[in-house]
Amino acid sequence: MTLALLCSGQGAQHPGMFELTAGHPAAQGVFASATPLLGRDPRDLVRAGGPILHENRTGQILCCIAALSAWSVVAEAAPARMIVAGYSIGDLAAWGCAGRFSVDTVLELAAARAEAMDAASGPGHGLAGLRGLPQARAAALAQAHGCHVAILNAPDSVVVGGATPALEALCRDATAAGAQRAVLLPVHTPSHTPLLARAAERFRAQLARTPLETPPRPAPRLLSGLDGAAVFDVAAGLDKLSRQIASTIDWAACLEGVAEFGATDVVELGPGHALATMASAAMPGVRVHALEDFRSAAGVAAWIAKD
């Protein structure tokens, strides 16, 4: 078996996102490390629900908690050959799963990343998802509305960022142009666009002060969430980790990198199923699940052991 781990981005946080990991013994350290950053136990926070789950700082920390706690479950049954990639904030979580950063470091960096992004963008911005138009057509519409392509998901699926009124107008025009889907996403920051150039520089400085860990053996191979290239040079990888805040992410290339590594099985660590859905479309014949498809940690281990 060659197992690929996909670390989710923001947007799918929900009250049940820790149901599988909340009581798992190996995940307790993750929840304990996150509590001071959030001001309360993250399990209690998500169960309460509400808009706070989608606030930028809270959302980025929660997504990293989800990936790291899920990784603690998967790691107990994981094979020797693994690869990991992360989508947006999931890129940072992937560094933790690959053993390059400690749990505490990942969560502290998630908070710092979100704070830098909020300071750089201010209110009234966000992201929109467009599906059903060629990338070139979507990019032209984005430019016409003063927006920017943020993420390339597939040949007919992109995410764009900009000011909220411009995104609303863009969605109307995209629908009129034949888009199957054109909606504002529950993210209130124009991530992965030049609007966040100052945030990328601030986060770069933060990373330069951050201690690295020596990955254990075996550890998943780490792909850059910016372009899907394997991270062999740590300095170059850290540069991409900061640059992706203000640069277009090529998630389609990340999935190509996973396929080229020979992944036979893929699990999205969560929250949500979006990456699993994209992986299924990009890699037909590969077994793909989201962690949230399972009812228990034992079920995850049994699925991994089937191959």
From TrEMBL:
SUPFAM superfamilies: FabD/lysophospholipase-like (SSF52151), Probable ACP-binding domain of malonyl-CoA ACP transacylase (SSF55048). It comes from the Bacteria. InterPro entries: Ac_transferase_dom_sf, Acyl_transferase_dom, Acyl_Trfase/lysoPLipase, Mal-CoA-ACP_Trans/PKS_FabD, Malonyl_transacylase_ACP-bd. Transmembrane segments: none annotated. Residues 6-307 form the Malonyl-CoA:ACP transacylase (MAT) domain. SMART domains: PKS_AT. This is Malonyl CoA-acyl carrier protein transacylase. It comes from Methylobacterium trifolii. The lineage of its organism: Bacteria, Pseudomonadati, Pseudomonadota, Alphaproteobacteria, Hyphomicrobiales.
